[in-house]
Amino acid sequence: MNVLIETFFNTESGPVLSLNIAQGLMKNGVCVCAVISEEIENLDDWKKSFPSECLYIWKRYSNKYLENFFNDVKIKLKFMKKRFAYALYPNPVNRNLLVGRFIKHDENIMILHDVIPHSGTNDDFNRRHKELIMKADNIMVLSKQFIPIVEKDYHKPQSNIFYMRHGLMKYPEFNGSFSQEDLKSKINFLYFGRIEKYKGLHVLADAYREIEKKYPDVTLTVAGSGDFTEYVEEYKSLKSATVMNKYITDKEIAYLFSKPNTVVVLPYIDATQSGVIGMAYNYGTPIIVSDTGGMKEQLFDGEVGVFAQPGDSKDLEEKMANFITDPGLFNDQKQLVAESKERMSWGYICKELIEQLKQHQN
Question: By the 8 A CB rule, do 165 and 349 touch?
Fold first, then answer.
């Protein structure tokens, strides 16, 4: 089976997700080629994973017309002798469809990350994104519970809807050392991700305010880019909280997730699934997450992780406090992450996906 992966997302988790899927497919014997932008932040990893004849790097020009013209011609020439069963778009944009006109393939697949738009997202963006996804031959969801919604809202039969669990997100190991301050904390709580309304940062601030009143030697780090304006005063009032409101480098990610006694906290108000869970798995880090959307499904129907009620700061406080008062909970959750890590690997996940693709072809 030949599969083409196209991604024009250059930063944050998009490039990592796309490469992980490609590597998982290749591990299972699929012939994979890829089209990526020269500005993609993990460009070196793509070059290491693909022979040159299977990787096209989209060149940027100051003139958009020339950019499209020259790249389209070169792509057509590069892949003129290949035909792909599927063109897979992990983070769909309109350019995927334009580029797809020049590469022979039977069908495309678009991953629909947020079947139900998050609260606070722009209505115009949601409309335009839905219009794009409606053009897909096949739609892939990352939580089974959303398949009926895709059937209804996108007018797709189940035969044109694929399912793939959101897997482990591979990031570099931490090779540095930790400070005495890092080592003395009973628990280092970590929120990681873009700053957006649906992420529940007001809820987290309320919960942690009570935590630091009751328990010494705990910390909270909030790390991620985005507009933090409406949260500034709340987090300034927290004595043991650190805010890193910026783009977080891979080196910083490795440090934050590897710090001793770290527990990832994802207090989402509403969500479908989370790439941050895959990052926590990469570092073997225990997780507290809101019981919303496909979160419980992503964590093996609740076998792993600690779940809090969405929007309920008291419940979140209780779940955070349990990690402080019950030393065994941290070790138990860390062990559960380790035991289920193989099922979160892309080799395992893509093996299941390939079976769906084969059945669809038949």
Answer: yes
Q: Smallest Cα–Cα separation from 329: which of 317, 320, 339, 341?
A: 320
- Name the 3-class secondary structure at 334: helix
CA separation for the pair 133, 146 (Å, rounded):
15
Q: Edge-to-edge, what's the strand order for the sheet holding 187-192?
A: 241-244, 218-223, 187-192, 262-266, 287-290, 306-308
How many angstroms separate the Cα of 281 from the Cα of each of 66, 107, 150, 275, 341? 43, 32, 28, 10, 7
Q: What is the mean pLDDT of residues 211-218?
A: 95
User: Which residue shows structure tokens 């020339």?
Assistant: 66
Neighbours of 183 (CB within 10 A): 12
Contact 85, 106 (CB under 8 A): yes
Per-residue pLDDT tens for 193-211? 999 999 999 999 999 999 9
Beta-carbon count within 10 A of 45 CB: 16
Q: What is the pTM of this model?
A: 0.88
Q: CA 65, 67, 73, 74: dihedral to nearest 10 degrees?
A: 180
The confidence band for 11, taking pLDDT boundaries of 50, 70 and 90, is confident
Residue-by-residue DSSP string for 93-120: -HHHHHHHTTS-EEEEEEE-S-SSPPTT
Report H helices in 101-177. Answer: 123-133, 147-153
Q: How do residues 294-343 score in pLDDT, each as one tens digit? A: 899 999 999 999 999 999 999 999 999 999 999 899 999 999 999 999 99
Burial zone of 215 (CB within 10 Å; 0-12 exposed, 13-18 middle, 19+ buried): middle
pLDDT number for residue 116: 85
Q: Are 92 and 132 in contact (CB under 8 A)?
A: yes
Helix (H, G, I), strand (E, B) or coil at 160: helix
Residues present in the chain in total: 362
